[in-house]
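User: Fold this one for me? It's Dirigent protein.
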Amino acid sequence: MASSSSYILFIFNFLLFSISMSSSNGDFHDDLLESITVSRMEKTTDLHFYFQDVVSGKNPTAVKIIGDGYGFGTTFMIDDALTHGPERDSKVIGRAQGMYSAAAQNDMALLMIVTFAFTEGMYNGSSLSMLGRNHVVDDAREMPIVGGSGVFRFARGYALAHTVWFDPKTGDASVEYNVSVIHF
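Assistant: Here's what I get for Dirigent protein.
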């Protein structure tokens, strides 16, 4: 009988101890969170560059991987130059790598899945990821920036695209991008 009363006493003390630890209004929990939280300053960065989409010639940077013509479902894999100016021979500052697909059956809208990988200057080695709808017939198109790496870790923001020139015979284009991102 003594062993069962010691067992009951042990359980009672254990429960009492557990209740007293959890009724501390979360002081321990809050203190722990405060000690591991890192204070970060968010920055806003505005970028301006050009996307050189080359579908024609011997060395295209956009290659059709599926689909007929340019209709619904047609998909291109890209490794396009990002340049300082709108001319194809302007200084290359990075690459636009990913794909775009004709995503609308009755409209000219693309699904853009693109990483802007920077290779020059203070953003060398950093990247931004864009995922969104590009209604190419509009003069200005807005697409979301959903992430980044390097300097742009935890990036979020938007990209505004404007077609500078487009050759309907070849499909080649130069697109101006103004990108605004918030990051740490």
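One thing worth pointing out: Confidence is low (pLDDT under 50) at residues 19-24.
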